[in-house]
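Subject: Interface between my chains keeps coming out wrong

I've been trying for a while to get a sensible model of this assembly. When I model each chain on its own everything looks fine, but I need the whole thing in one frame so I can look at the contacts. Pasting all components below, labels as-is. Any help appreciated, I'm running out of ideas.
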Amino acid sequence: MNKFKTFGLGILISFFLSVSSNADTIRIATEGAYPPWNSKTEEGKLVGFEVELANFLCIYMKRDCVIVEQDWDGMIPALRLRKYDAIMAGMSITEERKKVMTFSQGYATEPATLAVMKGSSLEGMDTPQSINLELGGSDVKKALKTITGALAGKTVCTQTGTIHQNFLESGDVGSVNVRTYKTQDDVNLDLASGRCDVALAAKASFIEYAEKSGKAVVTVGPNLAGGAFGGGVGVGLRKADQFGEDSSFGKRDAQLLKDFNDAIDIARKTGKISELAIKWFKDDVSM
Amino acid sequence: MINSFPKLLGATVVTLKLLSASLIFGLFVGLFFAILRLNKNIFINKFAYGYSYVFRGTPLLVQIFIIYFGLGQIEYFRTTFLWVIFKEPYWCAVIAFTLNTGAYTSEILRSAFQTIKLGIIEAGRSLGISNKIIFYKIQIPIAIRQSLPAYGNEIILMMKGTSLASTVTLMDLTGVAKHIISTTFKPIEVFIVAGGIYLFMTFIIHNIIKFLEKKYSFNS
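Reply #2:
Try treating it as a single job with all components included. I did that and got this:
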């Protein structure tokens, strides 16, 4: 009996509470490992489309901001624990995420795509150039069927906790042998090494990797959007009611949502989002 | 919290598989290198010392990354037959864990061999038992008994070390916990359940070792 008491006590001790401070500076989290959305230079400096956009949004809001780095897999829980106030990390607005957080209006959207190494049997997959899962219809069904056939028996790699993982596990493309990684960099490494037969991620991240590494990574199949892929990338924020709408936390969070939406309006109207998008994606992915 | 429990229990099987494979291989590796350490030849001795020095002196996470991502980068390596094994995350993890625990085990066993009193070996010799039989029937059993407390510690450390398998895509207890968190966004609850399962495994291992220690105690 005594042994079980010791065991129970051990569990009790492992409970702990975390309290974080809150200054008036807005803390914005990014991953720093998902180029061209956000990445890090060799000196460890955060750069990328969202890092620059975040700085402009703060100027429009007339607020002081700090951009902090956070691993992708702990991104949403840490937001909820008030480790920072906002997420700008290529995070798509999805119904699933909206259950625990909220989003500003979208600022950019970019399709997802499959990628393989040159010489793969998946090259030349016969599908339309792009499909929108939201629209449905026979074209989409046919394309999904083609993808299902192509992925059968293959190891498909993607980053943990992403819209891409959700899509692969949604059943839209049958039962897939999914392997998940902590970062997109790891996915790219294992695609190049041959451990992964196929990978799924934002199109730009494959193009960027192919360019920078010189590896023969090619994208295949249609550009994917809608459905599990969500409705564009927005600023991730806490729901105002998470800490009670009338509490000071709740009021601050509600104000932040409004401020970010207004700032994005300004950035869009002045053409800033498009300008940055073209700079980083070589393509206007703004919305 | 309740819903995640069956999934986590399923993943515990993967953790236990990784642990038992690494411990079994690691014991042989450890015994082999412990014997090399006792060799009088300086090169053999230094080689075994170098192995344990490197694997005890670097973090397990670094070792697993070098074996998994590092070797996978070498194009030539991918054309060799070894790639069949190293292509699989499971075997990369087992190899990394085996080499790591093997290094610690070799040190534990070496020190146990060195604590065996010369009188015991001499007693064997005076009875006309060959050196080989003295080694297998006297030295090894005593060394194993001597090393039980330290080895029990090593098993528990290794059990916790297996959580690093999730960094190379394996769906062990930690991997599945992270996966559940990525859809439920509830890290505290899920990690407490996972932590509880780890704690329970420690509890079991600890008691098995205690039982063995008692059973093979010199005083009984």
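Reply #3:
Confirming on my end. The CA atoms of residues 156 and 237 of chain A lie 31 Å apart.
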